[in-house]
Amino acid sequence: MKRNSRLSLALHTLSHMAGSPGRVRTSSDIAEHAGTNPVVVRRVLGKLREAGLLTSEKGHAGGWRLAREPQNITLADVYLALDERMVATNEASETPACSVEHALQERVSGVLEEIEESLVKRLGETSISEVRGG
Amino acid sequence: MKRNSRLSLALHTLSHMAGSPGRVRTSSDIAEHAGTNPVVVRRVLGKLREAGLLTSEKGHAGGWRLAREPQNITLADVYLALDERMVATNEASETPACSVEHALQERVSGVLEEIEESLVKRLGETSISEVRGG
DNA sequence: AGTAAAGCAACTGGAAAAGTTACGTATGAC
DNA sequence: GTCATACGTAACTTTTCCAGTTGCTTTACT
Ligand code: FES
Ligand code: FES
Predict the structure, then answer these.
(1) A133: Cβ under 7 Å from strand D?
(2) Minimum-distance ligand to the CA of B93?
(3) A104 close to ligand 1 (CB < 6 Angstrom)
(4) CA of A97 to the centre of ligand 2 (A)
(5) Burial class (CB in 10 A: 0-12, 13-18, 19+), B70
(6) Which pTM value belongs to this model?
(7) What DSSP character marks residue B87?
(8) Of the candidates A4, A99, A115, which has its C-beta nearest B88's C-beta?
(9) Strand-pair category, B63-66 with B54-57
(10) For chain B, what are the domain ranges?
(11) End-to-end distance of chain B based on CA atoms, in angstroms?
(12) Which among A7, A103, B9, B53 counts the fewest CB atoms within 10 Å?
């Protein structure tokens, strides 16, 4: 799979599940559908479970299920659940650096935070059920 | 050096140079100052030269110099010169995919493009001379 | 008991980026 | 004219990040 694909995998899977909410799916099924590996699926969906978007059950007839109405799960929820930040934050450099570099960091970080915020806001305007035309 | 450091290196160097514009610096000096390698510096600054932000001269007493007044070089100029895009665009997936996935791509890509645009706009509001309190 | 699922930890492999080495080319000093 | 110096570039090496994989454990249903 390609780089930074966790978000793609998560969104794809949730959108798919939004089609028949309540239905249980195994990580193997999901992996096959998404062209990847069950363990990778569990890793990603595990994050979504921690965020309260999904539930999982072990054992026979276990699997994954939406924890909420698909209308109540936004793209931002998914984005935030995987704690990647798309707007690459060049986080505090190891060496504190001089005043010039410090000022630079401040300025750039400030802008990036703003941008990140507006990204989340925009993503929050769409639910996973809307995406599939539902 | 850490990942995705090209922008950091470029901004740091230009901000530094904005302190005494007109002065020539060698890639060795810059590399030493930034804690990296002259070849890496030349790679990064080469991009800035292509974008018309810097000039370089070979030979004895050669080196790098700002091509414009530091007031006329914005953070956006630098960002765009290195053609990385910070807002990770999950570009068209190899397999065209079904309608659900397609709709998803459309939606997300649209938002990301918007965000990228506003990032550049915001970065364009600050010049490298402002950053150093000049 | 047996089977099927998630959970988890550790290892493997490939790709991207930084870093390095080596050599060519241009330019000013002498 | 020669030499030192600096950029330009290509090729190679090293590092780092992640997806992918394997193997084992735990849980729950039949
Ligand atoms: S460390 Fe201050 S300008 Fe470079
Ligand atoms: S929902 Fe997965 S390919 Fe269409």
Answers:
(1) no
(2) 2
(3) no
(4) 48
(5) buried
(6) 0.90
(7) B
(8) A4
(9) antiparallel
(10) 5-133
(11) 28
(12) A103
